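Question: what's this shape?

___
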Amino acid sequence: MPAYLHSIAPVVPAPTVDQGSAQAAMEGIVGGDRRTDKLLRRIYPSSGIDTRHSVLEDFVPRGGETTPPADEGCDAHGVRRLPPTQSGPGFFVTDAGDVRDPGTKERNARYRSEAGPLFVTAARDALEAAPDVGPDDVTHVVTVSCTGFYAPGPDLDVVHGLGLRGGTERYHLGFMGCYAAFPALRMARAFVEADPDAVVLIAWAELCTLHLQHDRDPDALVSASVFADGAVGAVVSGRTPTGPALRLDAFADGLAPEGADDMAWTIGDTGFEMTLSAYVPKIVGAKAHHALGPLLAGRDVDLADVPRWAVHPGGRAILDKLEVGLDLPDGALAASRGVLARYGNMSSATVMFVLADLLRAPGPPGEPVIAMAFGPGLTVASGLLTFA
């Protein structure tokens, strides 16, 4: 039976920082030599990002806005802004201006205190936005994150926070990186195909800014210029949609092994260390057509028939190279570029923000959407969805 994505509910931490302020903060943390300062002045203005969100207030100018506006805590695009559990700067830069480099234990402790409320809020919002679905209907919970660990985990936070049944099946997908939206959606579709009564509640939460590296290596500087924090919830079931929805038609994973060393995610003594080389956009652009072959095999869908795409905006260069590599029409990546500009790269949650944008302005029934994301491996994950 078909599986449908009925609702998507994005959430971001309330502290908001513009790229200019983020650049200034990084100049204070790692700047001071001519080469690094020159690189920072180049990568931040050219990132395609206007603002990002963080559970930390270290990057927000003193006196800047850190609390939700009056419109019930949502931004201009309807995305909920959740205040962090701890307020004030001091995680990376103290009030006296001294730079700190917290160890992995301290960073993960902050993850635990901040991630739980984001998981629960995103899951609750998604459930409330799904027509005719309540807590007692949920049969499966899937949580996703690559930016922290704890047990009992966020899956149990969601069950307790929403008052779900104790027998709800729980699964957590961890440390997969930016493409992890697709394994979660594929898992949900499999549950629905196996059980027509299944209702799957998925929640993603990524706190990338906790892992800022005090490193002048270009890869670390690029990572710091794009990564941000965010969460999102979604409901998948086989119920016939009564509102805007996306049918989950097919998924495929491809590998570009020549890029395995260009995107990696490891645990260091001071947080998680990201490798994101300048070659990744070139590899993605060159491999996109090849990666989509298995996804579209045997299906009556031509790339020219897809007016809007949901591509994980890992960075502006990735979108640029993919647009050229696939010869996409103007505007095909508008949602991806908009999410990048407003929220930056929130790892696994980001492509769901893009799909949320598309679902807020749904196409006619039968219109296809191709979604893509990229992660360590180098993995190119893709999905074919159709407006129901």
In short: Residues 4-237 form a domain with the Peroxisomal Thiolase; Chain A, domain 1 fold (CATH 3.40.47.10). The chain has two domains: 4-237, 246-387. The longest strand covers residues 4-13.
